[in-house]
Amino acid sequence: MEPIYLTEVTKIKNGKKIVVKDTLIKEAKLDIIINNKKIASMMAVPLDLKELIVGYIIGEKIVDKVDDIKEIIIKSEDERNYEVLIDAKVSQKNIDKLDSEGVIVSGCGKGTSVNVDINSIEAQKITTGFSIKADLLFNEMQTFYGQCPLYEQTGCVHTAKLYIDKDTYFIGEDIAQHNTIDKAVGKALLKGYDIQHSFLMVSGRLSSEMVAKAVVHKVPILASRTASTCRGVMIAERFGLTLIGFVRGKSMNIYRNPKRIEV
Questions:
Q1: Which of 48, 143, 234, 244 has most Cβ atoms within 10 angstroms of its Cβ?
Q2: Which residues contact 44 (CB under 8 A, 6 or more apart)?
């Protein structure tokens, strides 16, 4: 399914009204059904859906690893509503937490709170010695947006980039910020990469749920052109994440754990 469509809009420019074609992003509702039980719904751009689901269910610790997923079937009758049918070895305890805690921001259905409880995050402290040079991050951030085709076409999506090495990276694009991380990480996991030796760039603010996503996936460095919230910084401090904001030109603000950035 094409994630974009064209429509006519009336544009006012230089004191004149003109009718032009505009490119808009599509969004769809996903019902996630694991072992015949619906566990959540979310809104997403209908692109890279398998990768999104893999990143989501591993990030929420519903499944432990890719090998625990036996099958993913994605069905749609009208291209606006999808059923994602998953056969997998699961943690029932973590499925139950989706009902009880409401900390997953899905954009639709279950899990609407953006106030992530630090004590509810199931993650180990990030202790890897992985580090990068500051110039690498500056250069990658400058080219980041030009590598995101949906953003280039519509200007209406958030983006994430998971950098593995100079020849390998994975892009996630979606209307929901947190979905972009799941898509990028899901792509890398399905390819078998060790994401504990990578860094992640995102287009939007470093809110608590975005920082929690990086922590749970054990990505050691998370960076953005914009700022972090206070709770985002608290999560980074507790779990050993290198959290960086305002990466612009040759300047950045490292909120916590600066040892992974070499000058």
A1: 244
A2: 27, 28, 30, 52, 107, 174, 175, 176, 179
pLDDT given at position 77:
79
Strand, coil or helix: 225: coil
Domains observed in the chain: 28-116 (3.10.20.10), 132-262 (3.40.140.10)
164/175 Cα distance (integer angstroms): 24
Per-residue pLDDT, averaged over 39-66, amounts to 94
pTM: 0.87
Predicted confidence (pLDDT) per residue in 140-172, tens digit: 999 998 888 888 888 889 999 999 999 999 999
Contacts of 223 (CB under 8 A, 6+ apart): 137, 141, 199, 200, 201, 202, 243, 244, 245, 247, 252
Q: What DSSP designation does 243 have?
A: E
Active site residues: 108
